[in-house]
Batch of 2 targets.
Target 1
Amino acid sequence: MIYDVKLGENFRRKARLVAGGHVTDAPSSLTYSSVVSRDSVRICLLIAALNNLDVLSCDIQNAYLTAECREKVYTIAGGEFGPEDKGKIMIIKQALYGFKSSGAAFHSKCADMLWNMQFRPSRADNVVWMRPARNSENMKVYEYVLCYVDDIVAISPTPQKIMDGIKAVFKLKGDKVEPPSMYLGANLDLAQNERGRKCWTINSEKYVTEAVKNVEERLAEVGKGLPKKGLTPFSSNSYHPAHDVTAELNAEDTTYFQELIGVLRWAVELGRVDILLEVALLSAHLALPRQGHLLQVFNIFAYLKKHKKRRLFFDPDQPSISDDRFAKHDWHDFYRDAKEELPHVMPEARGNSVKQAAKHCGDVNIRS
């Protein structure tokens, strides 16, 4: 039995009966399933708004069990197999949870399915699968499938057709195909920007709410609570962790400080960039934290309690930024023959472009 607390799923507690893969030797082939990066998810959601693409998600049921076991593993049948089979040697045929190569076996089967559907992996992230298509305006675009083990997201002018192809190979949990509401631990919502254009947003409200609740319960056990104000992540603009000379924490509080920094780091991963600087500065003191550092961590949680609903927009509109804010420099004498080096195997540019501001050397257009 394996027990776990799912940090990215609002601290959901989970238990699973798995095979004893720890007693087998690791195979020479790959033993893991690649997972899509959060950066790739955010870029693809931006592309969805940019090119008028729809988004659907699904969850494959009993994913590993759909693939064949890559290892030669046997077990001796117990009494639960009945008197006729008890004591017999049983060869394991399916990729059970717990075996070292089960993740790779399922990844391979999923990759075969997508390849047969004419999708090809991106060279930047091999679990972002791409296929040429046209959107509702007949514009050349790519449609995408993002894989996080058994969680699948399809971004396409017609994502239901992609999901129908997946359902022909795999059984889906609850037979459900729907717009994503949560992915990689973050809440996803379809909203409108200031100009009324639909785009996806990401927030960590549920995660932050649960994290604050856990901290408050822990403090209540010793008759304490979070700071009342919490107007900013640090208690004052003049505070800096490197200048803190308060007493060092004992072993128990040091461990607790490290745990809380881990919780805050995940909140940053889920989009809370407003606490990124403060969490990074405190993370430099994980080995030898002080009492003042722990108090500032509590202050960050007090700030999160007051600002739970902050979210990031994957906004496709060009922001209004004045060029006067940037100093202009002439680098011609230093880089007379400079030009952008592009991969010779890069895919065809399709869809609307994204302008990446680079004021020192001109603007760079990036196509989806």
Target 2
Amino acid sequence: MARSQYSTIFINTITSYTQKDLISTSTSINPNLGIVLDVEGEPIVVAVNALIAEKELVLKPFDKTIPIPAYLAGCTVLGTGEVVPVLSPSHLGVLIAPFQGGMEREKEFFQPSTTSQVDAVSTILIVDDSIAVRRLLSRMLTQSGYQVVECRDGKEALEKLNQSVQQYDLVISDIEMPRMDGFALLKEIRANEHWNSLPTMMLTSRENELHRQKAASLGAIAYYTKPFHPAELLNAIALIVSH
């Protein structure tokens, strides 16, 4: 999935190098250096102190003595005999949410305005293949008083709708997702006798008019693009669920 913006997080990695290694590369250290990683489909920039070297290493698993976080793939042994843990980018999603955007900025944006306060508990179905986006939306909506159900794609969302007795007040769906995309999900919702009046909002990185028109023709009640402004999105959601 194409992205025009990168998220930036800072992770303290436990990487051991000899003093000789650091001295030999000190003249080339870039204080603004980062590595772009693919974390569950999201491009994430991880800030690093320096790029020491690039080499092929043999990955060794940890033993089962203590629980190991999923984002640690194992370890490798350097030529000096030092043991260095190895990070697994595909499992870094659990570390992203607390750092994304900065905690102070997050608190400021997630503080609901007077127009977005929820009088009665409403349930919102979030449909997005990005775990980072789902967690961001879930935290924002939960802090504003909503109940939230998360789905990874349109197929899972459709299964939730058809199998659950839960009453949903709004669906917020991405467009480009595996198995069933947002447009296909919207078609299924509008064709279902029970769910055809369920308000559905599209939240996507696609900004072109063609996608907007298609979403409107399929019955989307609103169309927002990523990155979004939390306060603006909360106000729009409050207006939708209040009707």
